[in-house]
Amino acid sequence: MSTPEELRYTEEHEWVAVRDGESVRVGITEYAQDQLGDVVFVDLPEVGLTVTAGETFGEVESTKSVSELFAPLDGEVVAVNDAVADSPELINSDPYGEGWLIELKLSGSATPDSLLDADAYQRLTNG
């Protein structure tokens, strides 16, 4: 499975891509979407919601189960991918690209450097 080196990861199987110095894009990993199966519905937050690392910000529903989405870092939701709400299968077909979920403007001392790198995430999923 693909684990892009430039991304950071959480133990809850979200990925984080640094957009600029103060914002990140978030999605679920290829491993997560594979475990879920065909994604049929996504519940995402409203722009402007403030989230705390580890707090739920939405849900992904698949033919197998419903899974909560967890904020990887503290921040404010500044963008939501409306395309996945209309076409949730994008999470399966392109989890690291068109299947992204939200963008966060980081707050406080939140930093992606505190998350898992690709090697650590691969060790977690290969177990």
UniProtKB/TrEMBL annotation:
A GO biological-process term: protein lipoylation
Stored CDD domains: GCS_H (cd06848)
InterPro entries registered for this protein in UniProt: 2-oxoA_DH_lipoyl-BS, Biotin_lipoyl, GCV_H, GCV_H/Fam206, GCV_H_sub, Single_hybrid_motif
Transmembrane region(s): none
Entry superkingdom: Bacteria
Residue positions, PTM N6-lipoyllysine: 64
Cofactor(s) needed for function: (R)-lipoate
Role according to the record: The glycine cleavage system catalyzes the degradation of glycine. The H protein shuttles the methylamine group of glycine from the P protein to the T protein.
Subunit organization: The glycine cleavage system is composed of four proteins: P, T, L and H.
Protein name: Glycine cleavage system H protein
Gene assigned in the entry: gcvH
